[in-house]
Amino acid sequence: MKHLLTPRAILLASALAIAPAAYAETPADTLVIAATIDDIISLDPAQTFEFSGNDVNRNTYDRLVDFDPLDMEAGFKPSLAESWEMSEDGMSITFTMREGVTFHSGNPVRAEDAAWSLQRVVKLNKTPAFILTQFGFTPENVEEKITFDGNKLTLNLDKAYAQSFILNCLTAMVASVVDKETVMANAEGEDFGNTWLNTNEAGSGAFELAAWRPNEAVQLIAYEDYWRGASEMKRVVVRNVPESSAQRLLLEQGDIDAARDLTPTDVEALSEAEGIKIQNEPRGRILYMGLNQKDELLSNPAVIEAMKYLVDYEGITNSFLKGMFVTHQSFLPQGYLGELKENPWTYDVEKAKQILADAGIEGGTVTTKIRDLREYIDVAQTLQGAMAEVGLTLEIEQMTGAQVLDAYRAREVPIFLGEWGPDYSDPNTNAATFAYNPDNSDEAKATGLLAWRNAYAVPTEMGEATEAATLEQDSEKRGQMYRDIQKQYQAEAPIIPLFQRIANTGLQENVQNWNTGGAVTSVMYHQVTKGE
Amino acid sequence: MIDTNTGGQGPIPPASAPDRRAARKRRLRSIAGTVLSLALTLLGLLLVTFIIGRVMPIDPVLKVVGDRATQAQYDAAYQAMGLDQPLVVQFFRYLTEVLTGDFGRSISTGQPVIEDIKRVFPATLELATLGTLIGVSIGVPLGVIAAARRGGIIDQVARVVALVGYSMPIFWLGLMGLLLFYGILGWVGGPGRQGIIYDGMVPHVTGMILVDSLIAGDWGAFRDAFSHIILPASLLGYFSLAYISRMTRSFMLEQLSAEYITTGRVKGLSERAVIWRHAFRNISIPLVTVIALSFGSLLEGSVLTEIIFSWPGLGQYITKTLLAGDMNAVLGGTVVVGTCFIGLNLLSDLLYRVLDPRSK
Q1: pLDDT tens digits, B256-286
Q2: Where does A283-501 sit in CATH, by number?
Q3: Inter-chain residue contact B190 with A249, CB threshold 8 Å
Q4: Residues with Cβ within 8 Å of residue A54, at least 6 apart in sequence
Q5: The CATH number of domain A43-202 is 3.90.76.10
């Protein structure tokens, strides 16, 4: 027995076992994706609020209205709702449901399911519920406010909101329509099936959930009776591959069709590789700098103004953030209604020096906490160097994301560097957190508002303008309102948007119609095809 | 042998009954002692982990409710998680649940901890076992030969191999291995436990894909899984080889300079017999401890190897959940690792008895 385990024998055995294995390309009807998907903690649309969870739900559920992956410019389009109508006073909106659509269980999709799904979100009141409750729904009144009759669904609102605002919110994953009968059959106590839906699925989307193994893989299988027609991809496999170089190797070897988390170095290397293409799309996340107004130095308007000129926008986006971010100095991401295209600030140390000198500021020290993520640390260190040139000292404490977030929510981060991603595809999602803070006192504990976290007392008229913009029915006018708010914001706010994130997906040349959802939604697989 | 002494029946020698009873009592006491020390060790382990987890400046509630939660949602989750109770109450509540087999739910995966562990532990066990096998089968002979031919070429090679193994960052070595054997040569499978085609195709029995595919008789799946595991296992094997070969060498050197070896040689025993039959047999006991410790440390999961090779194992699981303040998961993982170490200790104790005639 002993001589069987000699090194030579083991090597030989390994060679024999490996030799015949062939590594060809992925099957023609299967889409294989490598991504970091370890953030999924729930697949219940009423609870899911993580990127990867939304990526799954986007494909397993439908909503009343949805984006068309082949025509994103058009904005929301009819989906499970065939049409809709606002009441004359604008206080309610009635949807007519599409006929003949079925859930994966085979049950028909009814107005009753849609009503119940939305009511369920409000009653469960998990984190993303605010996207719906901002229309005046509460667990107590929601059954009167959201009603159905035959194939009509009616939402009764507390104000005459802009139609675009309502419909944009209904494209969010939290507004997914779930199969009432299937879910209720699996409910435990008063949980409306939440425990079951956390790991299962009851939708009508293009794909059925075949398996989810946390930190490992998600598998989807095409729903053959899908009302838009069955997807060409019969199987979608998303593998958790945390390491960018591993994703790159898999792509080069043809073992995957798409690599979603590539570092700029790997993107650059792959852009020259044969048979592989790189697709760029702007995502919704804004990297910004928050100056805490509790800090005496940072609350000085001259310092706020000077800081805008101390970020080397061009240098940063051409070096360590290359291909990951583009300069973007307003809080609405590119691709949103009311986006502002101008970037007014450039890197100008002399100008910053002058501003500080005019205000009689000779120096000062700030100690801040920065998340231990390469990008943020690099930006912070560049900023540190620029600040030193104008006599300001920045001391950096590196911490984990959770630690920084804790401190930030407690208003204890003097200079915050981090990202904010929109929660739904309407401009209000960012306006309501950057430019809205009705009560700036510590007691208000408005921990969800970025303005509050930075102790920024948003001027009353700006707060009112933000509220008014949600009620403007004319989309053209509404867009202009947001542009005006952002201009005023750029002039005086201590929260300074710097960059917008870009998604780089490495794809096999034959993959067509790939769409990560851009700035407004999550990834979509239904339209993806694989050519020769 | 069960003692069936019923008092007077059968030809039982009168003196042997009390002896056997005493022996049985000793055995029972020893088992009770082992169980007690096992329970106490686990309890201590849980307590320490629990305290570390609670003093860590990470808020587990935020992980549950997310960044956007309102204060009311935050407070509701805080209460639902029992964090408003004193630490002592929290710990005892946890302990009672664990005793009934309920390790709670992980907040990072949304699934029961026991389910998570059933999934991640076999992945690590499979990898660590193969890694240790590789490490032992090469490391031990290498160490023995290096000692027997001290200063010779094999000794020099072994020294370099061990030095590289100790000093090379596993992250770099792993990536280079992937690049060479997967990227350039195409000899092995890429990151992950299986090729996509076989993903989810092998019925789950033990969770170790190599074993499960053999049980299912699926030779293709076995080959696929083997091609995926061989590189990370070799990498881990290399690191344990470095350690095991150095330890073997120093144990052997100690034995080879002992007087009984000189006596053996003087008596004309062949060099082979001196080394393998006499010296090696005497180092087998400390060697078992070294191997058990090395295996144990691989069972904790090698986080970096797991990350590079996208291996969904225990190491990644514990690290990730620890950083999220997911205490149920961390404690569950700790129990598993602790039990493994204790189990390995017991096993090496048992092996001592087999290997060392004196302990009989």
Answers
A1: 888 888 888 888 888 888 888 888 888 888 8
A2: 3.10.105.10
A3: yes
A4: A48, A173, A522
A5: yes
